[in-house]
Amino acid sequence: MGADPVVLSFYDSVIRQSDVDILEGPHWLTDNLIGFYFEYLSNVAYKDESRLLFIGPEVTQCLKVSRCQELGVFLDPLQVEKRTFIFLPVNDCTQVESPGGTHWSLLVFCKNEDTFFHFDSSSGSNYGHAKQLASKLSKYLSTSEEGVFVQADTLQQKNGYDCGIHVLSNVDLIAEYCAKYNRVEGCGLVKQAEVTKKRIEVLNLIFHLKEELVSLLK
């Protein structure tokens, strides 16, 4: 067994022991963990909800650094023209070759409202990155030239490492609201209690999915 054994293989995501360690401690979430959660939302939680599209961190990063004429390479296979809501985790990394960065936020596009909503738990730290991505995507998604961009009211994080946890908590709140009301406006703020328990919820989810896969193999 390797030094960093695989805990769970789930669609395109591979969760290793190091990912579990990150969730167990007060650590910054990696793109791998956020990607896993977006895979779960796409393939389990909202698998029958075709209006919602969850784009993982890797593709989001490619969209950030690609030229406008190249966006279709990533977006066409996702059938974005059939989607009403598109969720993208944004970080402040500027290079596609070296994933990372220091801060996560959530960008949501609503076709019905023709608006990009940016949810940032650190006083708009990612405003520039999200605005640039929205401006680029608007040429592909929006009916207006630049697309309306809204810096949404967002619960602020209380430390320097929970930005990714806030993204997961926000995507839960907003996706549920969108599925019910068919809009983003009015979704409200996530509660601090939801953020506080999110790490253990994701850990429990990983081990629950692992148990399900093991039982299927018996």
Structure description:
InterPro entries: Nep1/2-like (IPR044613), Papain-like_cys_pep_sf (IPR038765), Peptidase_C48_C (IPR003653). Residues 13-174 form the Ubiquitin-like protease family profile domain. This is Ubiquitin-like protease family profile domain-containing protein. It holds the Pfam family Peptidase_C48. Keywords: Hydrolase, Protease, Thiol protease. By secondary structure, the protein is of the alpha/beta class. The chain has eight helices and seven strands. The chain has helices at 17-24, 31-45, 57-65, 71-75, 127-141, 163-181, 192-196, 198-217; strands at 6-10, 13-16, 52-54, 85-91, 104-110, 115-119, 148-151. The chain has a five-stranded mixed beta sheet with strand order 3-4-5-6-7, sandwiched between helices. Strands 1-2 form a two-stranded antiparallel ribbon. The mean pLDDT is 93.
List how many beta strands DSSP finds.
Answer: 7
Order of helices and strands: EEHHEHHEEEHEHHH
Low-confidence stretches: none
Strands of the widest sheet, in order across it, are 3-4-5-6-7
Radius of gyration based on Cα positions:
17 Å
Please tally the helical runs, counting DSSP H or I stretches of 4 or more residues.
8
Using brief descriptors, characterize the structure shown.
218 residues, alpha/beta, five-stranded mixed beta sheet, 8 helices, 16% strand, Peptidase_C48_C
Q: Quick summary of this structure?
A:
The chain is of the alpha/beta class.
Indicate the topology.
Elements: E1 6-10, E2 13-16, H1 17-24, H2 31-45, E3 52-54, H3 57-65, H4 71-75, E4 85-91, E5 104-110, E6 115-119, H5 127-141, E7 148-151, H6 163-181, H7 192-196, H8 198-217
Parallel strand pairs: 3-4, 6-7
Antiparallel strand pairs: 1-2, 4-5, 5-6
